[in-house]
Design brief:
By secondary structure, this protein is of the alpha+beta class. It has helices at 10-23, 74-83, 108-113, 121-124, 159-163, 197-208, 232-246, 256-267, 290-300, 327-331, 345-350, 359-372; strands at residues 3-5, 27-30, 46-49, 56-60, 65-69, 86-87, 131-138, 143-147, 171-179, 181-182, 186-193, 214-220, 223-230, 251-254, 279-284, 305-309, 314-319, 337-342. The protein has 12 helices and 18 strands. A 5-stranded antiparallel sheet has the order 4-5-9-7-8. Strands 12-13-11-14 form a 4-stranded antiparallel sheet. A 4-stranded antiparallel sheet has the order 16-17-15-18. Strand 12 and strand 13 form a beta hairpin.
C-alpha cells in the first residue's frame, strides 16, 4: 500500500521530490483527488498529497489576476471572485459527481492540468489561455518558474501551454497565477425546442457565426440553448437579433438565475448523471461534424446517449460499459479526439483513455517527458 507525503510549503515539496528521485519512488500526484479515476490506472509507490499547499497568495481584482497554491479548492476561488463580481471565464467543470465523488471538491490547478473548460470555451478560450504563470518542481528535483502575474508577460518559453493538459505527468505545481474577468451583469438563454441533432447544430453554428456575441451554444434533449451575456440593453438587443436570425416559433427565454443553473448543468455533464454505470466519453470535433459523429455511433449502439456543447464541437457521450469501452467505434474516422472520462478500472486499463498520438507526436511527447521527468516519477502511465 502506498504511503502518503503531504508537503506544507514549497521547500517541503522540493524535498519530497528530491527524496523520491533518490529512492526511485514513483509519485501519484493529486490535489483533492476528485479526478483520481480519470486516466489509466496507476500503481505508484507514494501519494504526493498537495492539499496542504492551499490558500490564496494574492488577489488583485483591479489587475484581473489571482494567485493561489496548488491545493486550493475551486469553491474557495469562486467564492473570493464572487465578492468582487469576477469569474473564471473558462468555466472549469466540476467532474467530481460524474466520477462518483462529492461536488465542489476539485481544485483549480487540477482543472488547469487537465486543460478543462466549460461552455464558454468558444468565446473565452481554454484553461491554458488563462494561466499566466506558475512555480513548481520538475522530475529532476529542480524548482522552476514560468510566466508571472501580469497578462503581458512574454519572457522565455510559454511553459504554461505545455503544462496545461499534462495531467500531472511533467511537473508538480506549487503556485499558479490565473487571469480572471468581470462577471456579466445579466445572462439570458434563448431556448429553441424540438430540433433534431443536425438542425440544432445548424442553428448553433449560425448563432455563433452571427454578430450577436453568443457565449454558449448547447443542445440537450430537444432543447437547443444559446447564451447571451453582458449589460441589459446589449443583451436584450442581441437576443432579439437571434430571434430574428433563427425564426423559430418554438422559443422561450431563461433569465439570469435560470440561465446560470442551466449552464452549470451543461458544464458539469449533469444530463449523464442518471445512468451511473454507463461509461462516459468526451469527444471534441469540428462543430459541423457533431451530429454525424453521434449518428454513426448510434447506428451501431442505438442505446448511446449524447448531448452537445461548444456549438456541436464537444460531445458528451454515454454508453453501456464494455471491456473495450467501444473505443474503436468512438474514434473511427474522428477528426478530433476522444477522452474516456468515466469507466471501471479494468476498462480503463484495457482501452486507450486519451486519444492515441500519431508516431511523430508521440515521439515529441516522449522527448518533452524526458526533459521534465526523465525518471518517470510523476503519475507514471496515467496518460498512456
Amino acid at each position: 500500500m502506498a504511503g502518503t507525503i503531504k508537503p506544507r510549503n514549497s521547500k517541503d515539496l522540493q524535498e519530497a521530490v528530491a527524496w523520491s528521485l533518490s529512492e526511485g519512488s514513483t509519485l501519484d500526484v493529486r490535489g483533492s483527488g476528485s479526478k483520481l479515476d480519470l486516466g489509466k490506472p496507476m500503481r505508484c509507490d507514494q501519494i504526493l498529497d498537495l492539499s496542504g499547499l492551499s490558500g490564496i497568495v494574492d488577489y488583485a481584482p483591479e489587475e484581473l489576476v489571482v494567485t493561489l497554491r496548488a491545493g486550493t479548492p475551486m469553491r474557495e476561488v469562486e467564492a473570493l471572485l464572487a465578492q468582487r463580481n469576477q469569474m473564471l471565464a473558462f468555466e472549469p467543470p466540476d467532474l467530481g459527481p460524474l466520477l462518483g465523488r462529492a461536488p465542489g471538491e476539485g481544485t483549480l490547478v487540477g482543472s488547469i492540468m487537465g486543460n478543462l473548460a466549460g461552455p464558454r470555451r468558444l468565446s473565452a478560450g481554454a484553461a491554458r489561455d488563462h494561466l499566466l504563470g506558475f512555480s513548481g518542481v520538475n522530475g529532476r528535483g529542480e524548482a522552476f518558474k514560468s510566466g508571472g502575474r501580469v497578462m503581458k508577460n512574454v519572457t522565455g518559453y510559454d511553459l504554461s501551454k505545455l503544462l496545461a493538459g499534462s495531467w500531472g505527468t511533467l511537473a508538480v505545481l506549487d503556485e499558479v497565477s490565473v487571469k480572471v474577468l468581470p462577471a456579466p451583469d445579466q445572462t439570458r438563454t434563448l431556448l429553441l425546442h424540438g430540433l433534431d441533432d443536425q438542425a440544432a447544430v445548424t442553428a448553433m453554428c449560425a448563432a455563433m457565426g452571427s454578430p450577436h456575441e453568443v457565449s454558449g451554444a448547447a443542445h440537450v434533449g430537444d432543447r437547443t440553448a444559446l447564451r447571451v451575456e453582458g449589460v441589459a440593453p446589449s443583451v436584450e438587443a442581441r437576443v432579439k437579433g437571434l430571434r430574428e436570425l433563427l425564426g423559430s416559433s418554438r422559443m422561450e427565454e431563461l433569465g439570469t438565475l435560470e440561465s446560470r443553473a442551466f449552464w452549470r448543468e451543461v458544464r458539469d455533464a449533469v444530463p449523464l448523471y442518471a445512468a451511473p454505470d454507463d461509461i462516459v466519453w468526451r469527444i471534441s470535433c469540428p462543430p459541423t461534424d457533431g451530429a454525424a459523429v453521434v449518428a454513426r455511433i448510434q447506428a451501431v449502439r442505438p442505446e448511446a446517449k449524447a448531448f452537445y456543447d461548444w456549438s456541436g464541437g464537444l460531445i458528451w457521450l454515454a454508453l453501456p460499459a464494455r471491456d473495450d469501452a467501444d473505443h474503436a467505434l468512438v474514434r473511427a474516422g474522428l477528426a478530433g479526439h476522444a477522452t474516456l472520462i468515466r469507466a471501471p478500472e479494468k476498462v480503463r486499463a484495457a482501452a486507450p483513455v486519451f486519444q492515441p498520438l500519431p508516431p511523430a507526436l508521440a515521439a515529441l511527447s516522449d522527448r518533452v517527458k524526458e526533459s521534465f521527468d526523465p525518471k518517470r516519477l510523476f503519475n507514471p502511465g496515467r496518460m498512456r
